[in-house]
Design a protein that fits this description.
flat
Length: 91
Amino acid sequence: MHWKFFIALLLGYVGGLLFFLHLFINIRKAFFRKKGTGFFTRFTLFGIYTIFCIHFFGNIFFPFLIGFFLAQKTFTFIILKYDRYREKDNY
């Protein structure tokens, strides 16, 4: 029973990292595109991913969300620390 919670946490973490990586890349490219379809791509893919994980592993929504939250915090820390494109004077 506990392995399902660990796998849900791991799947939420990996899915969150991929979600925020896609978001970060689309924000960088948004200035060069006229049509922004990144939101619908992220929303659709992550929705399908979440529904698949919950259907396959059962009632694991809260560990999945905790993993997603940890991925957000990790990705934010990495971007703020290692992003070479941000302006150094503002931080």
